[in-house]
Amino acid sequence: MPVEFIGMVGARDSEGGGRGPAVDPGFTRMFARVHEEAGFDRVLIGHSSSSPDGGQIAAYVAAHTERLGLLLAHRPGTVAPTMAARTLATLDAFSGGRLAVHVISGGHDAEQRRDGDYAAKEDRYARTDEFLDVVKRAWTEEEGFGHDGRFYRFDDFRSEVRPVQHPHMPLYFGGSSPAAYRVGGRHADVFALWGEPLAETAEQIAAVHAGARAAGRTVMPGISASFRPVLGATEDEAWERAFGILDGLRRQGTAGGFFDRSRPPLPLGPSVRPENAGSRRLLAVAERGERHDRALWTAPAAVTGAAGNSTALVGTPETVARALLDYVDIGVTTFLLRGYQPVQDAREFGRTLLPLVRQEVERREREARAQG
To answer: What percent of the chain has pLDDT over 70?
Structure first.
């Protein structure tokens, strides 16, 4: 099975410090095309309570690319599932069947409340479970139906629009808590993890698969792992660049796990214990040491309070490619890769890193077929 590579785009340069307009169409168009030319399969369009609307960004990206897939983050709780189902199916149609949805239940209470969501964490996962039940029915059932659940209630819903993809567009799901494994194991086509050491990643994969089996699934979800690669022509050059990036993160104070820098950030940083399990896991790994396995570097997570995707793989393209293949060996099927110099790095990943990984995966598959 080919490995999948996902990049990330937004309405403006996420490393620009919040300068300029909140929506920069020229940058978004250029950055999306960079990813397409670099050979990425998809790009993630993120979500926060104050960022530009991701659905509009995804539609704009689709209109200015030819084959690039879209991974649209959606947070249940602010839009009725019937409306979300129609909106997402419409976008799938206009994009020519290029849409996937990344479902995020939300891991920071203050950020949730900015959009009027005061549900507790466990309730958010229960709501997501119900939300996905409704959305999948809306995408697949021809007849009208009603629903009377804990979080949603409606009568005689019918949708004229269906996803182009069958039975529906791919569902990605993120989280690192038992509730996430349970709900994501039930619903996800791909379960997304942050970049932890190999042993801890294998443990999480087992937990996701256990959740899937408990839900009666026989086909396990794919697994995504997220990293911030730092490449150099030599190992020394890569590490010199990595330490320069770390100095820059320290000067910023908090790197911010959310996407809007035009307002005061949420209280994140090395002195703040994050609420979400994924960040706590990354910090626990960082406390044990900065370097793990072949190329994993956790110092950026420690400096930023593990605010989002914040662990790096450092080395030459060959070293980082081998590190990614180590994750393939334990069951990872997808990589979300985002550089610290986003445009330059996306081009470099496409020139060196992605081909190295794909060529080795293809070689292994040819050998497996030959051996019968």
So the answer is: 92
Per-residue HEC secondary structure of the chain comes to CCCEEEEEECCCCCCCCCCCCCCCHHHHHHHHHHHHHHCCCEEEECCCCCCCCHHHHHHHHHHCCCCCEEEEEECCCCCCHHHHHHHHHHHHHHCCCCEEEEECCCCCHHHHHCCCCCCCHHHHHHHHHHHHHHHHHHHHCCCCEEEECCCCEEEEECCCCCCCCCCCCCEEEECCCHHHHHHHHHHCCEEEEECCCHHHHHHHHHHHHHHHHHCCCCCCCEEEEEEEEEECCCHHHHHHHHHHHHHHHHHHCCCCCCCCCCCCCCCCCCCCCCCCHHHHHHHHHHHHCCEECCCEECHHHHHHCCCCCCCEEEECHHHHHHHHHHHHHCCCCEEEECCCCHHHHHHHHHHHHHHHHHHHHHHHHHHHHHCC
Write the CATH number for 199: 3.20.20.30
pLDDT in tens, 231-277: 999 999 999 999 999 999 998 865 444 333 433 444 444 445 566 78
What is the largest distance, in Å, between two alpha-carbon atoms of the chain? 64
Asked whether residue 257 is domain-assigned, the answer is no
Average pLDDT over all residues of the chain? 91
157-214 per-position pLDDT tens digit: 999 999 999 999 999 999 999 999 999 999 999 999 999 999 999 999 999 999 999 9
Cα dihedral sign, 342-348-349-353: negative
Radius of gyration of the chain from its Cα atoms, rounded to whole angstroms: 20
Bigger pLDDT: 320 vs 77: 320
Number of structural domains, the chain? 1
Residue 96 lies in a domain: yes
The pTM score is: 0.92
pLDDT at 272: 52
Residue 263 lies in a domain: no
Say how far apart CA 145 and CA 158 lie, in whole Å.
Answer: 7
Q: Which domain holds residue 206?
A: 4-240+315-370
Residue 253 located in a structural domain: no
